[in-house]
Amino acid sequence: MDEERSISLVQFMVNEGLVPSPDEEEKRKNVILKLKEIVLTWIKKVAWQRRFPKEQIAAACATILTYGSYGLGVHGSESDIDALCVGPLFATMAQEDFFIVLHNMLKSRPEVSEIHCVKDAKVPLIWFEFDGISIDLPYAQLKVSSVPENVDVLNPYFLRDVNVTSWKSLSGVRANKRILQLVPNLENFQSMLRCVKLWAKRRGVYGNLLGFLGGVHLAILAASVCQKHPNASLNSLIVNFFQMFAFWPWPTPVILQDGILPTTRDAIEIRSLMPIQLPCSPYEYCHSNVTRSTFRRIRAEFLRGHDRTRDLLKPDFDWGSVFEHFPYPKEYTRFVKIYLSASDQDDLGDWVGWVKSRFCSLLTKLEEVQGFCDPNPVEHVDMDVTEPNVVFYWGLNPSKSSFTDILHVEEDFMKNLKNGYQGSAGGMGLSILQASQLPKSALLDTGIGKRTKACWKILDYNLRRTPMYSQHLPHYFVGYVATDREPEHPRDGG
Hints:
By secondary structure, this protein is of the alpha+beta class. It is 40% helix and 14% strand.
């Protein structure tokens, strides 16, 4: 019986598009291979510009390491690829090598479109589309003369004296690699994590920017269940996942077992509501934006999942009930409408990305005046206006129905938004709606809405640019660099 139900769950995953087709898998593998070839050519070009001897140029090597959902093997048919470029000590990010030479090499490729340099993010990167697949490409510089193709980023030898930016860039790859080493059954872990991510997205508790669980959080939670139940079937792992975290004694941190006792604790992160430790030394905690409201929502969903999966052995059990979309219009009587607008669609993408990166401050403010707020991540469009816009509807505490004056919250949040924004700020308005006033698109909320890429439009290199020449090879032109400062690129991680 259990085996039969495992098969039905696997079929459910296929039906939901959680497992890419063989053709899609092959396409992604080819993209990674091409990227490796490009960065290998790039590093030899950089070595040549440094006037290195021929044998040193021939030995120069850089590589690509994947992380995120693709690195863990849990990507879907629509997933992006998180790929880290790892280079040796002579190839820099701050100067010309990464953001100019490699950028121009990528831009010249026929497979590449929509390429942007994002320099001021916490993890600077180049973002682009390669054969229609979205790629995030940060850079890590190791203090070695050449980087092996399959460099072991857990080896302290390669990590010595790396700068802060490189360390942050390496963090995702290192966490992924350690998780894969620590799970007892890789295939079960991957299938389980695919299901857990679908559950979190359907139930509205996925996304670090909104104070929920990001990809790395869910991966560690799933891995901890796999460790405690090494011989369990896929069905049992899902059941144990909900049982374990429905009754987890937060803020006790979730820590994967690796046979090594951590010697230090991050005093700030350990005070978070749901501390989850990264599984690689030195032991740090995952960055978390969990608030009182989102903590309450996550706990409620763990309890609901536990309640639904207790009926697993009943003949009429349906996995679809576990993964039902969260019914926002039925759960809340009032909503705060967040209306964002801009003069054109490109500016709107910039503005929405910036606002989403500041959503936690709005959520905290709404909690102060309401006690509870549920930040629905689904993006809608108001079809009754002509200007480009994105609209969010967040559920409000039903027990505080007297709250109607939201003007002071709007003013406070707008000041936060204008602080540090480099472009022309778009429009932002907050208003209170009754459930009966929601548009049909929100009433039929299935968790699928308009999505805007949280990426900044960078000044076109062909419109406003400054020529850059090599610092190491006089009169050698390496490419153009934008003259204006480039703004932040908020990423949801996962």
